[in-house]
Each structure stands twice: as structure tokens, then as C-alpha cells.
Amino acid sequence: MAFKVAVAGATGNVGREMLNILEERGFPVGEVVALASRRSVGTEVSFGDRTLKVKALDGYDFSDTDICLMSAGGAVSKEWSPKIGKQGCIVIDNSSAWRYDQDVPLIVPEVNPDAIDGYTRRNIIANPNCSTAQLLVALKPLHDAATIKRIVVATYQSVSGAGKEGMDELFTQTRAVFVADPVEAKKFTKRIAFNVIPHIDVFMDDGSTKEEWKMVAETKKMLDPKIKVTATCVRVPVFIGHSEAVNVEFEKPITADEARDILREAPGCLVIDKRENGGYITPLESAGEDATYISRIREDSTVDNGLNLWVVSDNLRKGAALNAIQIAELLVARGLIQPKQKAA
Ligand SMILES: NC(=O)c1ccc[n+]([C@@H]2O[C@H](COP(=O)([O-])OP(=O)(O)OC[C@H]3O[C@@H](n4cnc5c(N)ncnc54)[C@H](OP(=O)(O)O)[C@@H]3O)[C@@H](O)[C@H]2O)c1
Other CB atoms closer than 10 Å to residue 327's CB: what's the count? Predict the structure, then answer.
């Protein structure tokens, strides 16, 4: 069985990672097509030891394509995903365009795989925000064990979460600081080099930001609508890897030792938690890795049944590309998709 897969946004941070992961995990592809904006037509991207010439998404005929891995931003997805879905190609979208649509399943395979059945209503499946994906991989097994009541989370999000322009801005500003050139902020609202910015996405009426709202809405949609969530999302001068300081209050008692044992067995999780110098994970070490790492697990004595955790993952992988390909694998594993083209 071999599928025709299109990667839309193939020249971007997430799209390139999708191509790497399709190859690494041996996803059953017959043909891979790299799509981006008209600006990139004819440029080349790597897929294993092959080179793919980029084609334009605009006007591409998806009628013989099985899966479109979409990472070209919300506006592009709003316009294109329904048209692609109508051509019988399943869209797995990385933007926030469809996550809150009742007819679109929002999936992290380790958390709510059974919700995938709803994809047929639009032929679109949404990938969550990068910060929510890693949070829920770590919290789902603890919720199953002791029922989460409330989550307080502060994020430390890398610049790659803002696309390739975000990475370029950190690099250019850092260099400018060292050579005493003027420092210009274009992508971010303030200087990001040697700084942190408590503002990601637009402001909402209640003073929170859209990024913070996404963590609340997506946790409720995927894990449990009864859980209370409050988030503060912060951009930090790290290239790849989002970190989260998480405080969780449970209905039932759970000790740090019990949580550590549960997370050691949990899918997608890796516990690195030694109470000594360096006995925890940092975002630098998570880059290029698939796991959601959990460190600094400890009891919070200021509330009943409270735990603190430090959760770190590669935002381009579990936060985006890896999760999307795991969703494609889930479609195949459950027999929900058959290749349109018969093997020669
Ligand atoms: N980075 C993360 O951690 C992360 C995590 C979760 C979700 N996401 C989401 O994934 C999407 C992509 O993010 P990214 O970080 O990869 O951004 P990026 O590095 O800026 O790449 C954007 C991609 O979209 C393409 N694109 C832009 N306008 C287009 C158009 N009109 N038609 C077709 N393609 C177009 C670009 O092609 P050109 O090169 O031709 O402009 C490029 O391939 C966004 O929706 C983002 O919110 C990102």
C-alpha cells in the first residue's frame, strides 16, 4: 500500500520537518509532492536522498492525492483545505484555522485517537497548537490516574514557533548586538535577542492572548471540558524547543513518585528527573527528538493533590510535523484510508 502525499508549505520550518519525518518513519509513500506559494516554484527541498522541485499550491489538482499535510498558515488553510477535502484528499492541517470547528477532529494520537472518526464530515483533521500538544501528551496519563481539576501553565516558547522569519530575526538581532549594529524588531513586537516577550499572537478582550486562549480551548476539546486552564505564553530566545512550567491540581491524591512511574510508561513521554545538577531536560536537548520530556516532578504543598512539572518538546516535531504524520499513521492503522492509485 503506497499513498500519494502532498506537503503544502514544504519550504517552511514545519513543512521541511514533515518531509524529514515522512522519510525517517518510513511512511508508505508512493509519491511525495512539495507545494508552497508561487514565490517558491522551482526551488528545491530534500526528501531523504531525493530532491523535490516545489510546485504552486494555487491551482494544484488534488484529485489523485490521498493526504495533504498542510502547514502554510491559517489564511491559506481557510481557503484551500475545504477545496482539497472536496477533491477526496484528507487534509491534516497545522494552522489554527479549523481546530475549533465542531466538524473537524483535533487530534493528538496519544491523547484522543478515537475522535479521528469524525474526519469524514469535512475531510479535514486539525493538529493542535504546539504548546498544547506537548502539554497534553504529559498530562493525559495523569488525568486518567487522578482526574485533573485545574492547570496553571507558563510557556517558554522558541522562535521557530513563529516560522522561519522568527528564527532569522533571533539570528540577525544576536549578530547585530555583538557587532554593535542597530537592532531591528520586525517579526516580534520587541527585541527577542537576550530578552523574553510575554506576548504571542493577538490580544483578546479579557487581556489574555490568542495563544493563551488556544491552550485553554484545545485542552477542553481534546482532554476534558471540565478542566480549568490558565496560561501565560512567553517567547524566549531559543531556536527550537518549547518549555512549560506546569502546576496541576487533581481531584484524587497522586504523589510525585506515582506520577513519575505513570509517565515512565506513558506513550510519547520520557522522564528525565534526577534531583542533581543537570538532571533535567532543556529545550536545546529536545531539538530533533520525538519525545515529550518531563522533569522536575514534585508535589505542590500549597494545594490539595497538587504537582509541579517541567515539560519540554521539539515544537517543530511533536508540536507540528511529527503529530501530523502520527495522525496519518493512525488513518492507515485503522483502515480509514486506501490509496486512490493502485500500485503498478
Ligand atoms: N512552527 C511551529 O512550531 C508550529 C507549530 C504548530 C503549528 N504551526 C503552524 O504551521 C504553519 C506553518 O508554520 P511554519 O513555522 O512552517 O511557517 P514558515 O516557516 O513561515 O513557512 C510557511 C510556509 O507556508 C508557505 N506559504 C505561505 N503563503 C502561501 C500561499 N499563499 N500558498 C502556499 N503556500 C504558502 C510558505 O511558502 P513560501 O516559502 O513559498 O513563502 C512556507 O512553505 C502555520 O500555520 C503555523 O501556525 C507551526
Answer: 24
CB 238 within 8 A of CB 284: yes
Instruction: Give residues with Cβ within 8 angstroms of 175, minimum separation 6.
Output: 181
Kindly report whether the global pTM for this prediction surpasses the value 0.90: yes
Tell whether ligand 1 has an atom less than 6 A from the beta carbon of residue 259.
no
CATH of 131-158+196-313, one of 1.20.1250.20, 3.30.70.141, 1.10.1740.10, 3.30.360.10: 3.30.360.10
Q: Which of 7, 21, 33, 71 to mutate to test the pocket of ligand 1 (most atoms within 8 A of CB)?
A: 71
Q: pLDDT tens digit string along 317-327?
A: 999 999 999 99
Q: Model confidence at 341, in pLDDT bands (50, 70, 90)?
A: confident
Alpha-carbon gap, residue 295 to 338, rounded angstroms: 41
CATH H-level, domain 3-127+321-334: superfamily? NAD(P)-binding Rossmann-like Domain (3.40.50.720)
Q: Measured between alpha carbons, how far is 106 from 118 in angstroms, rounded to an integer?
A: 10
